[in-house]
Amino acid sequence: NIIEQIFGILQHRFDILLPAPEYDLSIQVRIPTALCAIHNFICTHNPDEWD
């Protein structure tokens, strides 16, 4: 499943997804989208960062 693969990539690169959430639900729903944007930005502008 592509969604599971995406979350696997994000969990590997961003530790914020590993512990139990400490944020309100209104913040939690925004975190995956923000992390995808950061991931894509880094891959575009500095592709060697996470090789």
Summarize the structure.
The chain has 3 helices and no strands.
Folded structure, characterized:
The chain has one domain. Helices cover 61% and strands 0% of the residues. The protein is built from three helices and no strands. The longest helix is centred in the last third of the chain and has 15 residues, at 31-45. The model has no long low-confidence stretch (mean pLDDT 86).
Please name the defining characteristics of this protein.
51 residues, mainly alpha, 3 helices
What percentage of the residues does DSSP assign to strands (E)? Answer: under 5%
Helix fraction bin: 55-70%
> Could you spell the SSE succession in H and E letters?
HHH
Radius of gyration (CA) equals 12 Å
Organism: Hydnomerulius pinastri MD-312
Protein name: DDE Tnp4 domain-containing protein
Helix-strand layout with pairing:
Blueprint (H helix, E strand, L loop, with lengths): L1 H12 L11 H4 L2 H15 L6
